[in-house]
């Protein structure tokens, strides 16, 4: 975990001309450096740069990854492999907690994808005027976040109040994504969160995302539909949801509301 943060800091410390080799605003690119959130659509940009990587299967994507720092590919590959196993185990536990078979969720989601966003929040001269990221939920299944120990930046919404999540040594923050809310028929809720910036210190965070396959049909099982009524959300594919999510601004409300049964 420490090596992951170290190599992330090394990457963002590279000369600008080196980093810009990876820069792109095309969300379809599987390795890209970019800024803000959805720079082509948003009216107000966020105080963030990020390196976005597809991580599964590793042998398909690592050839696209940065060659500098020299240790980047090895360290990030090892980290991604361990995170994937953790995420799959968490989904097994969630499945059992819902009274479903242990492998129900993992089977329902197909050959799950895995992405990573290495986020860099530079010092901000006027932090009260901006966010690193505005309030949002994640469109995927699970997000496993590793925070910089030096600077608090993550906030979660609980009972109508924003609470700072202080970094804890050797620990992850696990956020439920929209797909688990839909699949669990809202027994689990996706996590509203945002990132704030600091006036004096830069901050790094590493967010790992487990995602259903594009063709996976997201639907609540009959065991979770009470009183034989219809499920809260209509059936849809993950590809349909993902395209809808990224066609909107990040702070445009809960995308899952668009998939409710009427």
Task: Characterize the structure shown.
The chain has 262 residues and is α+β, with helices and mostly antiparallel strands. It has one domain: Jelly Rolls (Sandwich), CATH 2.60.120.330. 25% of the residues lie in helices and 23% in strands. The protein contains 7 helices and 12 strands. The chain has helices at 2-12, 16-19, 58-61, 72-97, 104-108, 178-183, 238-246, and strands at residues 31-35, 49-54, 113-121, 133-136, 142-147, 154-158, 161-164, 173-176, 193-195, 203-211, 217-218, 236-237. The strands form 3 sheets. It has a 6-stranded antiparallel sheet with strand order 1-2-3-10-5-8. A 4-stranded antiparallel sheet has the order 4-9-6-7, with no helix packed on it. Strand 6 and strand 7 (161-164) form a beta hairpin. Helix 1 crosses helix 4 (72-97). The chain is globular. InterPro entries: DIOX_N, IPNS-like_FE2OG_OXY, IPNS-like_sf, Oxoglu/Fe-dep_dioxygenase_dom, Plant_2OG-oxidoreductases. Belongs to the iron/ascorbate-dependent oxidoreductase family. This is Fe2OG dioxygenase domain-containing protein. Residues 112-212 form the Fe2OG dioxygenase domain. Keywords: Iron, Metal-binding, Oxidoreductase.
């Amino acid at each position: 975990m420490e090596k992951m943060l170290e190599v992330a800091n090394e990457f963002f410390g590279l000369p600008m001309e080196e980093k810009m080799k990876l820069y792109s605003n095309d969300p379809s690119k599987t390795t890209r450096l970019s800024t803000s959130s959805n720079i082509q659509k948003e009216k107000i940009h966020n105080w963030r740069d990020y390196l976005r990587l597809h991580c599964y299967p590793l042998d398909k994507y690592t050839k696209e990854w940065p060659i500098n720092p020299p240790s980047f590919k090895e360290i990030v590959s090892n980290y991604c492999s361990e995170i994937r196993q953790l995420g799959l185990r968490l989904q097994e536990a969630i499945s059992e907690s819902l009274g479903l078979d242990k492998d129900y969720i993992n089977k329902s989601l197909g050959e799950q994808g895995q992405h990573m966003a290495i986020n860099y929040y530079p010092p901000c001269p006027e932090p009260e005027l901006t966010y690193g990221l505005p309030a949002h939920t994640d469109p995927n299944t699970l997000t496993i976040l590793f925070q910089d120990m030096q600077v608090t930046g993550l906030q979660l919404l609980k009972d109508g109040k924003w609470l700072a999540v202080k970094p804890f040594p050797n620990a992850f923050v696990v956020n439920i994504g929209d797909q688990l809310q839909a699949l669990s028929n809202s027994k689990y809720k996706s996590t509203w969160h945002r990132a704030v910036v600091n006036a004096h210190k830069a901050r790094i965070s590493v967010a790992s995302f487990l995602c259903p396959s594009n063709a996976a049909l997201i639907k609540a099982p009959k065991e979770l539909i009470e009183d034989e009524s219809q499920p809260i959300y209509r059936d849809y594919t993950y590809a349909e949801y993902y395209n809808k999510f990224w066609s909107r601004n990040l702070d445009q409300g809960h995308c899952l509301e668009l998939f409710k049964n009427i």
